[in-house]
Amino acid sequence: MTAQTSFPDFAPALRAELIATAQAAADAARQVTLGYFRGAQLGTESKMAAGFDPVTLADRGAEQAMRAVIAARRPEDGILGEEFGPKEGRTGLTWVLDPIDGTRGFISGTPTWGVLVALRGPEGALLGVIDQPYIGERFLGGFGLARLDGPHGSRPLRVRTGVGLDEAVIFTTFPEVGSPAEGRAFHDLARRCRLTRYGMDCYAYALLAAGQIDLVVEAGLQSYDILAPLAVIEAAGGIVTDWRGGPAHDGGRVIAAASPELHAAALEILSLA
């Protein structure tokens, strides 16, 4: 796990500045992505020679817009983005960006993709934003905040508790999950849950933080896929680790759980993979 609430050296003014920078970056990406969403000129390409790993003009444009915001407001910080690689910083803080998490959903017209903005310190995630521009929802967690802003106003984020594994709602993005062994482990766990759903990308993590679902399990993630969801979920009282119970901020196999009890029960099954 990360030390998401360990920020004694961050003065209130600095915390406010970092939160404002994250919000401004998400605003910039929101403007770009909405200009392309459900449009005809996406410029879609695949990053893979075999298979399909899409990237669009919206992905690249949104990341460029976020980088410009950070360069103007926090020029000494590092940046790690999905589309344009790392920029070294001098402050020990790195902004971790995924301009469109869920590009397959984006090009299909489903409003389940999101913009991810995270701030990482030496010990892990400090702040995260999951933004869904089309719905107009923004999930923010870190520096003592856990909040959803959206069409119905603002409200605190809090995971739900008191749910057993046999009552749990579990999400993953792809039914295959990862390797054949990872897929078998996931489906073994899912068979013990009440309801399994697929294809929500980062929005599944947002729903967990909002108290709507109970588990998200994935494999093959990168740090820019998980840092922002991790910060939001931990701020809302949930748990995010790898499938062995260790840190998840570098990606890989990830489990997000609403409660310690669900986390422990799920790990018993996933740890066999």
TrEMBL record:
MF terms (GO), sorted A to Z: histidinol-phosphatase activity; metal ion binding
Enzymatic class: hydrolase
Pathway annotation: Amino-acid biosynthesis; L-histidine biosynthesis; L-histidine from 5-phospho-alpha-D-ribose 1-diphosphate: step 8/9
EC number(s) given by UniProt: 3.1.3.15
Gene3D superfamilies assigned: 3.40.190.80, Fructose-1,6-Bisphosphatase, subunit A, domain 1
Catalytic activity: L-histidinol phosphate + H2O = L-histidinol + phosphate
Keyword list, A-Z: Amino-acid biosynthesis, Histidine biosynthesis, Hydrolase, Magnesium, Metal-binding
GO BP: L-histidine biosynthetic process
Names of required cofactors: Mg(2+)
Residues the record lists as binding Mg(2+): 82, 98, 100-101, 225
Pfam families reported in the protein's UniProt record: Inositol_P (PF00459)
InterPro entries reported in the protein's UniProt record: His_9_proposed, Inositol_monoP_metal-BS, Inositol_monoP_superfamily, Inositol_monophosphatase-like
Family, per entry: Belongs to the inositol monophosphatase superfamily.
Name listed for the protein in its UniProt record: Histidinol-phosphatase
